[in-house]
Queue: 3 jobs
Job 1
Amino acid sequence: MLTRMIYISRAVGPQTTTVTTQILETARRYNKAHNLTGVLCQGRGLYVQVLEGERSAVNGLYRRIVGDNRHDHTEIVHFGEIESRQFKEWSMALVHLSIDDPMVAMKHPEFDPYSANSTAIMGLITELLSSSSAIQNPG
Ligand SMILES: Cc1cc2nc3c(=O)[nH]c(=O)nc-3n(C[C@H](O)[C@H](O)[C@H](O)COP(=O)(O)O)c2cc1C
């Protein structure tokens, strides 16, 4: 049973390259081993992450992530069954939430994931992914 989960959280401390690299290294190893895919958006002190995989694998990963003291205020914004994966080519892609693209900035002037619905959140992620500069270290 394939599922997709979206959650948001607030970073504890600055989102440095070191922290991001550590998270992504763990994520790519663990996610590959558990057939999980997704994308991590980060910036402005926030994380927005999409996780896709078998339901029990997604839940298992979320339990690990929730306990991580590098972020807090974790909030599930969406959980549902899916027919197919949207991010099947990435064990965990990284997208920057700092909205530099003027078109994206115009459409989402003050994007706040804590008050946005899941459709708006997925929409922004998809837009950011389609702008070529957004993806870092696809893997
Ligand atoms: C925002 C954020 C996203 C994360 N995403 C993943 C992920 O996709 N996969 C993963 O294995 N760990 C991810 N982690 C790391 C886990 O929270 C956890 O540190 C890691 O699984 C190691 O857990 P352990 O120290 O209990 O072995 C993420 C951490 C943060 C802060």
Job 2
Amino acid sequence: MVPEPTRPYAIESIWRGEHHHFEVRFTPRFVATLVNAGGAVDLRRGELLLPGGVRRDAFGVRDDFERRTGNHAPPWLFRWPERDTFVLPRGTIEVDVEPGTTTVVLVPPRACTPIFVCLDAAYLGRPVTYDADAFSALDARVWKPEVRHLHAGVELVGLGARPLERAAAAFEAVCGRSARTCSARRTLVESRLRDVFRLSTALLEIVADGSTSSRAAVDETRRLLPGLPPTSSQPADLIDALGTLRRELAAELMPVRVTVVPSGAHFSALPEMEPLRAQVAGAPIAMDEHGAVVTSGAPLQSATVVLQGRRYVFLPAEDLDDLQLASRHELYHLLEAQLLTPAQRRRLDALHAETVANAGPFARPYGFLRQEFLPTMAEVYEGGYGHEGVDWLRRHHGDLAELLDELTGGRTAARPLRASRRRR
Ligand SMILES: [Zn+2]
């Protein structure tokens, strides 16, 4: 068919059983160019029909997607210009041509749905289930936790020796190695933080006096911030950059409380969760920095919450006694947020960007989000999908598996925890 200019056409694009609904509109210039060329549009298949029976994918990216993922590509797929991501639109897209050419371009919608492939294997972790009582505030007479020191700035709290030992072992397995090597780094971070405060004060004095005579603080700041473009050497710009660095450094030093949530209780029932209790009840929905929505149907059983300058990491006792997959997932968040070096974080940034550009494969749909990339991949590494998953990780994400070996000291093939699960 030849579309009517500017009229919105409702489209349903199906990919792996999911229905994506959006609208496509064609600009008058596009329609004129199409008519001129003697062409038409196949709305359902997202293709342009050209004379001589030639079919052309509207945005010309489906072949690339199929080559990278080995999966059939859905109609109307395109690459989001904001970011190197294969997406389907949400809302309305407008199809146009570059003036004076036949090159199809699109006016992207405000939001898109990323399309990518994931590991397709059975998850061995057993989600903790909660009854209604699990969410009501814990009785203060029951909740009198023991506090143990795990590492500089990290304490472990919970009830009973066995859950605490299991939590300490999980922390050791995921964070132990980095925690030990980062003690020296912690001292370095503290000293850099002192430099940041001293230089911020010196620069503020320059701004206040309007004097340009004191270059020492400016030069020293530039040495502390080597990534700064040469154009920004104004004291006010430098103060901003120091502020960003201060927040990054402070985050690495944030005190951490790892809490074992007692059997039968949800973490929102703990007294420290009082201010957030109402918010955590709903199903989790995450949105990335470009507005791509990724939902997870899984109930939130473990969690990390930053409250009043402290990071709380909640690990359910049931999970610690099982495969520890939810707990270890949360500990990988802690590892990345506070224990990795900036160089290790940059390696993860690059591996994530590469996976996004290749449309996967991710471990789980919400592993598409940058902050969930390491924890979800680590669940595979920890045996959450059995040997099939471990093989998949080595095959598709060899560099990441290597980084995980480096961070944790490596894993032996089989996890002995399977036995404790069967016993129940
Ligand atoms: Zn997570």
Job 3
Amino acid sequence: MLYGSQETQNKRSPVRGRRSRERRTMTGIGLLLTAAVLSSYTQLPAEANSWWSLALNPIQRPEMYIIGAQPLCSQLTGLSPGQRKLCQLYQDHMVYIGEGAKTGIKECQHQFKQRRWNCSTVDNTSVFGRVMQIGSRETAFTYAVSAAGVVNAISRACREGELSTCGCSRTPRPKDLPRDWLWGGCGDNVEYGYRFAKEFVDAREREKNYPRGSEEQARTLMNLQNNEAGRRAVYKLADMACKCHGVSGSCSLKTCWLQLADFRKVGEHLKEKYDSAAAMRLNRKNKLELVNSRFNTPTEEDLVYIDQSPDYCLRNETTGSLGTIGRLCNKTSEGMDGCELMCCGRGYDQFKTVQVERCHCKFHWCCFVKCKKCTEIVDQYVCK
Ligand SMILES: *[C@@H]1O[C@H](CO)[C@@H](O)[C@H](O)[C@H]1NC(C)=O
Ligand SMILES: *[C@@H]1O[C@H](CO)[C@@H](O)[C@H](O)[C@H]1NC(C)=O
Ligand SMILES: *[C@@H]1O[C@H](CO)[C@@H](O)[C@H](O)[C@H]1NC(C)=O
Ligand SMILES: *[C@@H]1O[C@H](CO)[C@@H](O)[C@H](O)[C@H]1NC(C)=O
């Protein structure tokens, strides 16, 4: 049995990191990245070619990543020069980065399924299409949730022994853990996941060298802030899990370890951050500052944006908005999924559709459930 802990934990700040072998490795990467920036840098349009595409080009053959199969890194689309270097050094991580990005995108689609912009992917090269060229709230969420996906996937992969450079979490025993409980087990390595994701995901932004005060520089700062907020969400929500031992469930002995939260929780947390995201602009010192100084200054856990969102009502090739024509809406809801808001006042068409559901389910000894199929005619509403 697993118990979620009510107690707050003494997790250390991820930023301080650890003085371990891993840390030295990461410093090495830093140097490598710098080298990559100096050697070759081609400017790409905003998101035309992003590491997100790893989510869509599933890397199906992990065995290709064993050292020696280097050509693979040059075949992967969407990597920046620094990310390509990281790929070469950490080939076994790439599958999990792809998985993490996919988890993030799926969560984004879940959180936004009833909204005009529904996080739908467009094609396998640009993933989200031109919409990401706008520094909007939606873009902020997308960066955060995909960075979070990578932390999640890498942390778990460490724990499962899939990566050569990390293993179980080495988070020190929380101070408030009752004395007779054991701290051990193999925890998700959130520290490593955090640090690797920072190197990999941020590489792309750190390679850029835009003129001071430019719109592109503001966007780079925005992306970095939102990547960080995403990573911290995973770190913050990871909690202690415990297992009982002892005579017939007496729970006289417990073993506890650090465990990632369900990714849905991360999605919900970031959705709240999306709702409270702060509008920013570049100031004279080349830092982002609040547009409206009456609001609270965002912390590193908060999302920020620099552009107003388009209304996403109509298809627009320039902004990449897909529009809401043909989207399902809810006739009785007054929220974003309601026909009024979803269809942007254009009205809707009503359809009758047949829905097949499992029903009259019966439990049979032992052990299966048998159901009947019931059909029901339901009304559906679709935006004009
Ligand atoms: C997109 O993916 C499809 C099938 O997965 C592939 O045939 C096509 O070449 C890809 N397009 C690009 C531009 O990579
Ligand atoms: C698309 O969006 C841009 C920017 O908001 C706007 O200037 C343009 O008129 C739009 N085009 C269409 C066809 O609606
Ligand atoms: C998301 O929106 C697009 C464009 O409006 C639509 O084609 C797609 O089916 C939608 N996806 C879902 C899951 O509703
Ligand atoms: C439509 O919205 C109403 C009110 O929010 C809700 O009770 C109902 O379950 C929704 N219907 C569907 C099909 O989602």
